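Technical note accompanying the year-one report. For the benefit of new consortium partners, we illustrate the data format agreed upon in the data management plan: each record pairs a sequence with a structure-token string. No post-processing was applied to the example shown here.
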Amino acid sequence: MDMRRRRGRRLRLAVAQSTVPEDPTNPENLRASGRQIRTLMRAASDAGARLVQFPEGAITYPGKHVLSSGPGGTLAAADWSRVPWDVVRAEAESIAELAGELGLWAAFGSPHPLTPPHRPHNSLYVVSDRGTLVCRYDKRYLSHTEVSYMYTPGVAPLTFEVDGIRFGTALCIEVNFPEVFHEYESLGVDCLLVSVMVDDAERAVVARAYATLYNYWVGYSVPAQFGGTAPSMIIAPGGRRLASCPGDSRPGLAVADIDLDTQDPDIDTARRLARPWRRTARGGLYDSHVVVGDGRSDTRTEF
């Protein structure tokens, strides 16, 4: 069967837990992460996945002191000229080429260079099952360190479709900005891909809460080195964890199906009842029921 053929309203998602190098100045670090990404892509394809998601900065996420131009490792503007961008691009192109060979969509993080002297974006590349870079998400909400010393912020959300299922993307600290997740609900996503580079159990809890609040699937991808704190996982609408990687530092995959027509009671309730009801409630449902001029309502200092 042609893996590129539209398959209706069901898709198998793989969420990867790969090792993210924090020193991009050594080309071999970049090549090693590229090899591991491609190994996990092959495993995802063997598992029947149509889309595989990788962490923030999957090719590399520089530590905040690694590229600092300040003396003695003090924080200062990052010196991005120390990065072998030709190697970063070669690894990204190799990932895209393999995606085309496997008939597999892939979303993976990497710095995206701009025209000097502008700082790079912190980005998530989305490559189609034909090996084409179809879109790129640039992180909009940056940490203090990122915006002060490292990156240029992005300006727009990103949605894309695979086999009729609509995805959105967010990166790391954006989990702390509920407006990002509300925006994606209003854009009608079925699944939000959240890729992080953080050792933080609480951030995974908050990401899981958004699946409960907004009733879409969430793919949560973390680096393997932080997997012992909170592993990569796939969360169902309503907040139930469907699959997760091993809770240790090993690379791996979490695999689960996104099925828009599922009869699973929890997911069905979340998608077909809770999500539409909450949209209705936010849209002025209660306005006609508000009582005006009733003293028993207006006075709030008596029983």
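Partners are asked to follow this layout when depositing records. Residues 1-7 have pLDDT under 50 and may be disordered.
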